[in-house]
Design goal:
heterodimer; A: alpha/beta; D-Amino Acid Oxidase, Chain A, domain 2; eight-stranded mixed β-sheet; B: alpha+beta; Ubiquitin-like (UB roll); FAD/NAD(P)-binding domain; 7 domains; six-stranded mixed β-sheet; 53 strands; elongated
């Protein structure tokens, strides 16, 4: 059943429960052409593009819990491609371009809202770094503009401009194509479209072990029984190193809790997505009216999907320093996701050290914005066994060659 | 009909009237009222409009579970856009108004949306609004959504915060909680009791029971007056974090306009006892959201606790005995009460109800509330199956109780479904927590008290010496029969009131395969409103179970996340606001700089002079003048922010040799070495001078902004990788002041300090140090230069910083002494090609990129980062390398952050960027430092590069990074 305003009216008048399942309930078959472990955004997108771009439809997505329940359903929904290095810019801009057509492509409104992403500079030094970034992005074909102080205040009138502001406003830069999208809808939209192409989406199915034939993965042990496949994709953000250990290799990443929180819903008060590198705060207002915000990682590595109070206070203090009007508001909900952080804050896409298994992990704090590209590129690897040029720089071997893509460096964080 | 204030009763003070306004109308309440009880007493029925359909809504509950009664509250400088009327205590002068409804709440034009509800089911927005794109519709939808309107002015109130700890933290001051507190005190435990209402006692204040021969509310007050422990009232425990850390938000009533209205407590407890009680669940029937439909216990609370009788003719729908408690209380207050019980027979309480005139309809169900803006009648299906209509102005319901397991769940605790009480009850938690009373699914008062004492006995080293009071009645109020949703009922039935989620929405989610509890929640928004589903979660789950033919536990439980109720962001941040957000360090001689007219800026957390303008000099002229003065005579720079980390111990030399890129074990005592500290990626994390003071004693001078980071790295390596090494680290940065004296006249100036220190180049050559006494204080004098000139760093106790600075300034008058700021220092070092970490380097810069390859080949032992310096990428010849650039236009200063580009096949590719740029007053042309791919080769080829800045291009020549005094003769000049 296609989603459209016309059908909404038709069902409203007729059978309101007649839409049918968004994605079909499925049970695990004994074998598939390809299996993707992890039913988050990246996993579901991989399955969809495998079926759509490469015609491979005997595909299963195995999800330990409920689809979209990991970081896909726990992030602050920001999409942008304002990255410093060309490799990253091309990767994330590919994702953003796919996002721009995704609602139509999936026939599911993912509510892409290109409200503009603004980064604030609080010192002349930060302005210099932003100039460097803006020039890099312009040379890489990314649409950004440097903002002076006045332009910044015109875009973000509530930003703290008081004489005693701890972090004065010097300017900033904006990517107007950046914005937010509805995170759950991305998972559900991909699930629905993949399911329509024949992909089995199997929830509450935990992978407990890998079946190997010498150095090749040939099957999986799951809570729904054994299953075999030609190739396997691993897209289990937050648990990548856990699953890698089960498959017999190590990954160069650490897992941390990243908190996010929302305020009570309010009438529109903040138009853009605003980020302040100095306080690490980032904030946007959802269509429902909640301010959605977050900042830095919790202090120590963890797999527990909850944040600590001191870090929450730090995050809130950072936000309020930039937006002192928000001090009157209330926090409605606080949560955390587990992010897998690589040494260079860039993802790993490519073959695993064992044959037949391909990786999509290490997105750190920025996996949501990359979902369409992450899925696109993992699907390409699963279908062809080799990299699309976009994913080649993100191969695991960069940790041996030393060809790191350190976006923290690019963002001007001195180390 | 409207509610009436009774002449007697309730925990309000009729001698203290309070004036407030509701939508501009002046009203009166009493001290002790909540905003909700006062509004009810003033006859307000419609308190707001629902989020989606704009249906009129009334007050439904009497506590934190209230979904409807959100109001805009202004009180002096205090403003809350979404205040919950049932939990805000009324204060004189409060201005309360509705947050939805135009032109007014009684007649809302957007109420028309309700007519189109068929076309607006759960998730309708996922199925439409994407042609041409979402942005086309979004702004209109955003304006429709949202609740209250926030003020845009800055809020400058002060919020403070408290930190505390205890043996046992008891959360909830109802019967179980106060018994536990009483027991804990008797067992000698350091106890804190937290209660979110103003009074202890919880439901004892209105349930009408008798304890120890006295009314329960009096008994509770007696216990409360005797609690010899810290008791926080008006304080809600909102979050249960790791290691038994509890966040508590206390409401602060204050008339001080500078003071915030909430205070955060962080309480670390050895043991936590949760006595958080339970929330009553409503029953479902058609149009169950009409104003006048409320919870049975809330109606009882309003009459007994606030003296407000909510209606004359009250119907109570129930599936358990607790509905009768409300019936009795309301009938005793004079209302005509009918109980509609789904069960054929209730417990002994039915007779007691009938004795006070309550009419009981057994085996009957309420199927519909009649009335649009207020309940006027109730449709009932009787035990014979016939439908009758009873006139009523209040329809209260009791569908059983859900334990408030929120904090338990946040502790990491797992829940278990209990079929007897039809509730989720606490099971196991990884933390030191015990749950007692209704929160544990124990609804019997006597059992609840026993649980309280048992919980304390289990954690107290001494026995509890307090005995249980006698209860006059110990009847259980949990004779409950399951009723979630009656399939025979037609019409819209609300589950989540604030977010307008109905039974049909849940059915739609089930039919579309959004059957897991989290999908249900996210797809329909059930439980996502500001009440976080306190009345709706369990009902929603049960309906999903019913629709999908599963048991309730198989559907799962939602994860309860902090906070339990919305909490003030201002209070969460506490005092961290404005200058106190992350306080800036001040230099010891700060006042001297102020007197000299310095313009201050922040540099890495320090508030330092950027330059010292004279008269009307602009920044550029000032910087040029200061720089020239250094090379001509002598300049004085306050370098006190430079890090000073003492490293001592038997293994100090070996440890530092392992941590630093440069060789340090062979460094001679009294000598300095310029060193890099690398990360494991080989990237230069910091640069600085390391001095050896003795065999087992080094002094590090990290960059001002990196001192803490370097210390952290040292501790990290020591504690995690080399714990057996005998070495320790002490941050002495704030204990000493350092003044840098640079320029050809620097030695002359120092000689006037009469220290007796031999200043000859033989005794104190470049990169060495010595100690002595100046002005009666011990000082350290090091010869080190960041300008290329002869220069000294003089270090003295921090308290002497100002005296030394001013004395030196006086001594140097005739030498043309000039105080210089960071900006001219930055220019001087750029002329020499000296790098600034984080300016000229970034997170990819290796030592070799900066031209320091020596240690990698010369140093024989392993060191941090070595492995990464030997990767193929680290050895690429076309890495970005630090070089100088000289723009073709001598006067043009390219912006830092401009790129150097190559034209390849018509597209422009960046080959690097400018990291520093300035006009050099000594060379009379612009100088730039830049990180450029294969830069060394470009310098050797004397090549030109194209400079790009936001579309504009210029050219520059690749040159050596050192522009000035390449032989370094001025170091000894």
């Amino acid at each position: 059943m296609r989603y459209s305003a016309f059908n909404l009216i038709r069902h409203g008048l007729g059978n309101p429960l007649g839409w049918g399942p968004a994605w079909k309930p499925a049970s695990l078959k004994p074998s598939y052409d390809a299996i993707i472990i992890g039913g988050g955004g990246h996993g579901l997108a991989s399955a969809y593009y495998l079926a759509k771009n490469h015609g491979i439809r005997r595909v299963a997505v195995l999800e330990r819990g409920w689809i979209g329940g990991g970081n896909t359903g726990r992030n602050t929904t920001i999409v942008r491609s304002n990255y410093f290095f060309g490799e990253s810019a091309r990767l994330y801009d590919h994702a953003l371009k796919l996002y721009e057509g995704l609602s139509e492509d999936l026939n599911y409104n993912i509510m892409l809202s290109q409200r503009g992403v603004i980064n604030i500079a609080h010192s002349e030094h930060e302005m210099e770094l932003m100039t460097r970034s803006v020039n890099a992005m312009l040379l890489n074909g990314i649409d950004v503009e440097l903002l002076d102080r006045k332009q910044l205040l015109a875009e973000v009138p509530l930003a703290n401009d008081a004489p005693d502001a701890r972090f004065p406003l010097h300017g900033g830069f904006v990517q107007r194509r950046g914005g937010v999208a509805r995170h759950d809808a991305v998972a559900w939209g991909y699930a629905r479209a993949a399911s329509q192409l024949g992909v089995d989406i199997i929830q509450n199915c935990e992978v407990t072990g890998f079946i190997r034939d010498q150095n090749r993965i040939t099957g999986l042990e799951t809570t729904h029984g054994r299953v075999s496949a030609g190739v396997f994709g691993l897209a289990v953000a937050g648990h990548s190193s856990v699953m890698a250990a089960k498959a017999g290799f190590d990954l160069p990443l650490q897992s941390y809790a990243l908190q996010a929180m929302v305020s009570e819903p309010l009438k529109p008060i903040l138009h853009n997505v605003v980020m302040s590198g100095r306080t690490h705060a980032y904030v946007s207002q959802s269509d429902k009216g909640e301010l959605v915000f977050g900042a830095g990682l919790d202090l120590y590595p963890s797999y527990a999907q909850r944040g600590n109070l001191p870090t929450a206070q730090e995050i809130i203090a950072g936000l309020l320093e930039i937006f002192p009007a928000f001090r009157r508001l209330k926090m409605l909900r606080q949560w955390a996701g587990i992010v897998d952080v690589c040494w260079d804050y860039s993802p790993i896409i490519g073959p695993a050290p064992v044959d037949g298994l391909y990786l999509n992990c290490g997105w750190g704090t920025g996996g949501f914005k990359a979902i369409p590209a992450g899925g696109w590129l993992l699907a390409h690897l699963l279908a062809h066994g080799k990299h699309d040029p976009l994913s080649a720089p993100f191969d695991l071997t960069r940790f041996q060659t030393g060809a790191l893509i350190d976006e923290a460096a690019g963002a001007g964080i001195a180390h | 009909m409207t509610a009436t204030r009774l002449a007697h009763g309730g925990n309000i003070d009729r001698q203290k009237p309070i004036t407030f306004t509701w939508n501009g109308r002046v009203m009166t309440g009493f001290a002790g009222d909540t905003v909700a009880s006062a509004l009810l007493a003033n006859g307000v029925r419609i308190i707001g409009r629902s989020f989606k359909y704009h249906r009129p809504r009334g007050i439904m509950a009497a506590g934190a579970d209230e979904p409807n009664a959100l109001v805009d509250l202004t009180h002096g400088v205090r403003h809350e856009p979404n205040a919950r009327a049932t939990t805000v205590l009324l204060e004189d002068g409060m201005q309360i108004s509705v947050i939805q409804g135009w032109p007014n709440v009684d007649w809302d034009i957007f109420g028309v949306l309700d007519l189109f509800h068929r076309f607006l089911p759960a998730g309708f927005y996922y199925k439409s609004f994407f042609k041409p794109n979402w942005g086309f519709y979004e702004n209109a939808i955003r304006r429709m959504a949202g609740l209250g309107r926030a003020k845009t002015s800055a809020d400058r109130r002060k919020f403070d915060a408290r930190v505390d700890h205890c043996d046992v933290l008891i959360i909830g001051g109802g019967m179980a909680g106060i018994c536990a507190a009483r027991a804990a005190i008797s067992a000698g435990l350091n106890t804190i009791l937290v209660e979110d209402r103003p009074h202890l006692g919880g439901r004892l204040n209105w349930c009408g029971r008798v304890i120890d021969g006295m009314p329960a509310d009096q008994w509770a007050q007696q216990i409360a007056s005797d609690l010899n422990c810290r008791v926080l009232t008006n304080a809600v425990a909102f979050g249960y974090y790791d290691h038994n850390l509890i966040g508590v938000m206390e409401t602060v009533q204050t008339s001080d306009p500078d003071c915030g209205d909430a205070r955060l407590w962080q309480i670390r407890a050895r043991h936590v006892v949760l006595a958080t009680g339970a929330f009553e669940r409503p029953l479902l029937f058609a149009d169950n959201d009409r104003p006048g439909v409320m919870l049975a216990d809330a109606a009882l609370c309003y009459v007994r606790h606030y003296g407000v009788l909510v209606g004359d003719r009250i119907v109570i729908a129930t599936n358990n005995d607790s509905g009768y408690e409300s019936a009795i209380g309301l009938a005793q207050a004079g209302a005509e009460v009918t109980v509609v019980d789904i069960r054929p027979i209730a417990g002994g309480i039915q007779q007691r109800a009938e004795m006070v005139g309550v009419r009981v309809l057994p085996s009957a169900r309420v199927i519909k509330a009649i009335g649009r803006t207020a309940v006027t009648a109730v449709d009932i299906r009787t035990n014979r199956g016939s439908h009758i209509r009873i006139d009523a102005d209040i329809l209260a319901s009791s569908g059983g109780w859900s334990p408030a397991v929120h904090l338990f769940s946040q502790s990491g605790g797992k829940l278990r479904w209990d079929d007897g009480t039809l509730t989720f009850v606490p099971d196991q938690s990884p933390q030191a927590v015990r749950v007692i009373g209704a929160a544990n699914g124990t609804f019997d008062p006597a059992a609840s008290m026993s649980e309280a004492i048992a919980a304390i006995n289990a954690i107290a080293p001494e026995k509890v010496s307090w005995s249980l009071p006698a209860l006059s009645q110990t009847e259980k109020s949990v004779a409950i029969e399951a009723l979630w949703q009656d399939p025979d009922i037609i019409g819209r039935q609300w589950v989540d009131f604030q977010n307008d989620v109905t039974f049909k929405d849940i059915a739609l989610a089930a039919s579309e395969n959004y059957v897991s509890v989290e999908h249900l929640k996210r797809y329909t928004t059930l439980g996502m409103a500001t009440d976080q589903g306190k009345t709706s979660n369990v009902i929603g789950l049960a309906i999903m179970a019913q629709l999908t033919g599963r048991e309730i536990p198989a559907v799962g439980t939602t994860t309860f996340r902090p906070p339990f109720v919305p909490v003030s962001l201002g209070a969460m941040a506490g005092s961290r606001f404005g200058p106190l957000h992350s306080p800036l360090h001040q230099l010891p001689a700060h006042q001297s700089h102020q007197k000299l007219g310095a313009e201050f800026r922040e540099y890495g957390g320090w508030w330092r002079p950027a330059f010292y303008p004279r008269n009307s000099e602009d920044a550029f002229a000032t910087i040029q003048r200061e720089a020239k003065a250094v090379r001509a005579g002598v300049g004085l720079l306050d370098a006190s922010s430079l890090g000073k980390i003492a490293v001592r111990g038997k293994d100090a030399a070996e440890f530092l040799n392992l941590i630093y890129y440069n060789e340090l074990a062979k460094l001679k005592t009294g000598r300095l070495r310029y060193c890099f500290l690398l990360r494991e990626t080989g990237v230069v994390y910091d640069d600085g001078v390391v001095a050896r003071l003795a065999d087992d004693h080094y002094l590090l001078s990290p960059s001002s902004s990196h001192t803490k980071g370097v210390l952290d790295q040292l501790e990290l390596w020591h504690q995690t990788e080399y714990p057996s090494m005998q070495v320790s680290f002490h941050n002495l940065t704030s204990a000493y002041a350092t003044i840098s004296i640079a320029g050809p006249q620097s030695r002359t100036l120092l000689a006037r300090m009469e220290s007796g220190i031999d200043l000859s180049d033989q005794a104190l050559p470049h990169m060495s140090l010595t100690h002595g006494t100046m002005m009666g204080h011990k000082v350290q004098l090091a010869r080190v230069s960041f300008t290329g000139e002869r220069a000294y760093e003089l270090t003295m106790p921090a308290g002497q910083g100002r005296t030394f600075w001013e004395h030196l300034m006086n001594l140097g008058q005739d030498l043309g002494i000039t105080p210089i700021g960071i900006e001219s220092l930055s220019l001087l070092r750029a002329e020499k090609g000296y790098i600034l970490i984080g300016t000229d380097t970034d997170g990819l810069t290796l030592p070799v990129d900066l031209g320091m390859a020596g240690p990698l080949t010369a140093k024989k032992v392993d060191f941090v980062g070595k492995r990464s310096l030997l990767t193929p990428d680290a050895m690429r010849p076309d890495r970005r390398q630090l070089i100088g650039l000289r723009p073709t236009d001598d006067q043009f200063v390219p912006a830092v952050g401009s790129h150097a580009i190559l034209q390849v096949d018509g597209t422009r590719r960046s080959i690097g960027w400018i990291t520093s740029s300035a006009f050099s007053p000594h060379l009379n042309h612009t100088i730039c430092l830049a990180m450029i791919e294969g830069g060394r080769g470009l310098v050797e080829a004397n090549a030109h590069v194209t400079i790009f800045d936001r579309g504009k291009t210029t050219t520059a020549r690749a040159v050596e990074a050192c522009f000035f005094d390449q032989q370094g003769v001025r170091l000894n000049g």
